Please model this.
Amino acid sequence: MNDFTGLLEDLDALLITQPANVRYLAGFPHAEDAWLWIDDGGPRLLASPLYENDLERFGLPYLLGRPRDWPRLLAERARGRVGFEKAHLSYEDFQRLREAFKGAELVPTEGRVEALRVKKRPEEVEKIRRAMAIARDAYREALSEVRPGVSEIQVAAALECAMRRRGAEGRAFPTIVASGENGAFPHAGAGEKPLREGELVTLDFGARYQGYHSDVTRTLALGEVSPELARVLRAVQAALSAALERVGPGQPIAAADRAARAVLEAEGLLRYYPHALGHGVGLEVHEAPRISHESEGYFEPGMVVTIEPGVYVPGLGGARVEELVLITEDGALILSSDL
Ligand code: ZN
Ligand code: ZN
Model:
């Protein structure tokens, strides 16, 4: 097992409190109820006595106690410069650390573990592909429910139930089924509104498998839609194609979003595209890298990202299409291609 001391750099110890970071480094599946402490003595998990049996089998050194007592349990190990994750510590916990770590200097850190998580290891890619395969098969099954008269919630339930039956730990996030005018809200959720003939319906969903996620969106036309809606959907599909052409190793991330924006601008629809083009996917549904026209980095092999342009026109409706993409050594593999 890696001792992670490379993460310390200029620090004497580092406290990891972000659950996905704890899970990534330690592999502990109950990471939402644990902290990870790293110093030159190696890693150490902190958890409640509830997890004693899990930790006995788990094989990493650990300290047990109520969460409010964790700072006190660490006190004798806290020397010198002690890093903490500044975006993932409550004010209350920060105060407890400050009280317990007398004589140590608390140093805010940002994105150290997240930077490692950007490029996926082969075993992580496998879990994401499995999460994607579950979502794909569930989608194929649930498609028969996407018809006039069925409510958005019923469609969402069919999708989520089918994912569970295929081995998902759960849904990656609350499934979005947005029909008709609801399609104008990027995070619409799913309501009691029935689907109707002549509407676009946007389905945005994913599965969780061994802690890893999939995320994909399709927009379907129910029968014949108005020329306006058809134009919106075509523009989004064209923006997606233009963006995907710019996704590959060494390509600037910003150029992909700029390509999508150029297509929408030519259609006069750019003002209805209010979000970034995509995001990284892994132990979290939304993680680094951010895929936007303001991003500064480059696509690198091992990244798993979404490409998801959308257009949302108030009072009319909207469309979004999202692909899940693995950057490879020589190109990009669309993991969500066959649905
Ligand atoms: Zn999505
Ligand atoms: Zn997404």
Q: What stands out?
A: The mean pLDDT is 96. The longest helix spans residues 122-142. Residues 51 and 57 are 10 Å apart (CA to CA). The chain has nine helices and 19 strands.
